[in-house]
């Protein structure tokens, strides 16, 4: 079954600094990968998804992620952090063994310092 | 704004009770999935419904059950509540069940506390 691992449960950056949130996947088939963001007391919002087209995927709010098959990674980046980026970020993979369910990583809490 | 709504926002129950959570999907979305998110963890898949039939199930016991209605609404029912059922319950709707690339749109969730 497909799975994802997020390295670092907490990441702290200064405003204006590069954001890098790490995600590695495990899959025996070409994966469909997603990044979601969750603001406090809210549901999940899709940032971007990889569906085997371009390996560099651009999402909302200036985020992007690059699919690297050789490294089994799908890291999320943003060139310049903004205070409003502070949230919980989840990497997920589609597991189509059970109705296309999303399997999520444990999440990374991003903190942005002024 | 995803167009997916859930009710109630918060709920407090006692151990052994039963609870029903509700979700209203985006119009035209034939698939609804339910997830449980314990505090500090990623969401875990409970089950998925497609055109009113269960289409997949995660590692949850039978006391977790669901219904999907023709008007794009759905329910999650949990019987014999346990303390570990305390969590944020999220529903997500998508257009069709068959496409793994189809985006799942999440509602804001229902926070269930079991005392």
Briefly characterize the structure.
Chain A has 114 residues and is mainly beta. Chain A has strands at residues 3-7, 10-14, 19-26, 33-38, 44-50, 56-58, 64-68, 73-78, 87-95, 101-104, 108-113.
List the helices and strands and how they pair.
The complex is a heterodimer of chains A (114) and B (115).
Chain A: E1 3-7, E2 10-14, E3 19-26, E4 33-38, E5 44-50, E6 56-58, E7 64-68, E8 73-78, E9 87-95, E10 101-104, E11 108-113
Chain B: E1 5-7, E2 10-13, E3 19-24, E4 31-37, E5 44-50, E6 53-57, E7 64-68, E8 73-78, E9 87-94, E10 105-106, E11 110-114
Parallel strand pairs in B: 2-11
Antiparallel strand pairs in B: 1-3, 3-8, 4-5, 4-9, 5-6, 7-8, 9-10, 9-11
How would you portray this structure in words?
Chain A has 114 residues and is an all-beta fold. Chain A is 0% helix and 56% strand. Chain A is built from no helices and 11 strands. In chain A, strands 2, 4, 5, 9, 10 and 11 form a 6-stranded mixed β-sheet that branches. A 5-stranded antiparallel β-sheet of chain A has the order 1-3-8-7-6, with no helix packed on it. With 115 residues, chain B is mostly beta strands. Helix content of chain B is 0%, strand content 50%. Chain B has strands at residues 5-7, 10-13, 19-24, 31-37, 44-50, 53-57, 64-68, 73-78, 87-94, 105-106, 110-114. The termini of chain B are far apart. The mean pLDDT of chain B is 92. The chains are: A mainly beta (114), B mainly beta (115). Chain A binds chain B through residues 32, 36, 41-46, 49, 51, 90, 92, 94-107, and chain B through 2, 4, 6, 31, 33, 35, 40-45, 47-48, 50, 55-58, 90, 92, 94, 97-109.
């Amino acid at each position: 079954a497909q799975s994802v691992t997020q390295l670092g449960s907490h990441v702290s950056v200064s405003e204006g600094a590069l954001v890098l949130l790490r995600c590695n996947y495990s899959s025996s088939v070409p994966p469909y990968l997603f990044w979601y963001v969750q603001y406090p007391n809210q549901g999940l919002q899709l940032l971007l998804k990889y569906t085997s087209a371009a390996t560099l995927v651009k999402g909302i709010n200036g985020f992007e992620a690059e699919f690297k098959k050789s490294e089994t990674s799908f890291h999320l980046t943003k060139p310049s952090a903004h205070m409003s980026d502070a949230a919980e970020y989840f990497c997920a993979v589609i597991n189509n063994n059970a109705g296309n369910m999303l399997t999520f990583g444990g999440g990374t809490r991003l903190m942005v310092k002024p | 704004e995803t167009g997916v709504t859930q009710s109630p926002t918060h709920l407090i129950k006692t151990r052994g009770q039963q609870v029903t959570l509700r979700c209203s999907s985006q119009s035209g979305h034939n698939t609804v999935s339910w997830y449980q998110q314990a505090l500090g963890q990623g969401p875990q898949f409970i089950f998925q419904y497609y055109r009113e039939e269960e289409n997949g199930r995660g590692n949850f016991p039978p006391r977790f059950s669901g219904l999907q209605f023709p008007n794009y609404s759905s329910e999650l029912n949990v019987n014999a509540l346990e303390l570990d059922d305390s969590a944020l319950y999220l529903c997500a709707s998508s257009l069709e069940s068959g496409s793994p690339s189809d985006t799942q749109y999440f509602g804001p969730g229902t926070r269930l506390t079991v005392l």
